[in-house]
Sequence to fold (144 residues):
Amino acid sequence: MSENIWNYPSTAGYTPGADLTGYKVEASDGSIGKVDKHSHDVGDQYIVVDTGVWIFGKEVLLPAGTVTAVDAEARTVHVARTKEEIKAAPEFDKNKHLGDADYQSELGTHYSHGAGSGIVAPTPPGTPATPPGTDPAHKSGPTA
Fold:
């Protein structure tokens, strides 16, 4: 079953309404920073991570569907993406991109293809359904 990338997975251990601000964020290959902001609005859930010096003090937005575990005791959020996948994401500017449907669609597409997660970016309103045989989860070609 596929889950919407803009919702926390049911297996992540996220408690609705929990304040994740200040939690440490761990990518699959190491620490990336701390949660600066987050949204728990169903269908529009995400975390904004202050990366500190990791990528020159920038912030990145991660859809909640990338979260694999929330450890309230350790105040840590684990995400199923590598540092490189996060660094390669479309640039985030909180003054321009929060609430921007086009940016969220672009970001959702970037992250929904990562790590064979089975999560999908929702189809933006007014977009035709994906034609049969073009499911991005079933890419053809050489594998690494």
User: Anything to note?
Assistant: Helices lie at 83-87, 94-97, 101-112. Residues 101-112 form the longest helix (12 residues). The radius of gyration is 15 Å.
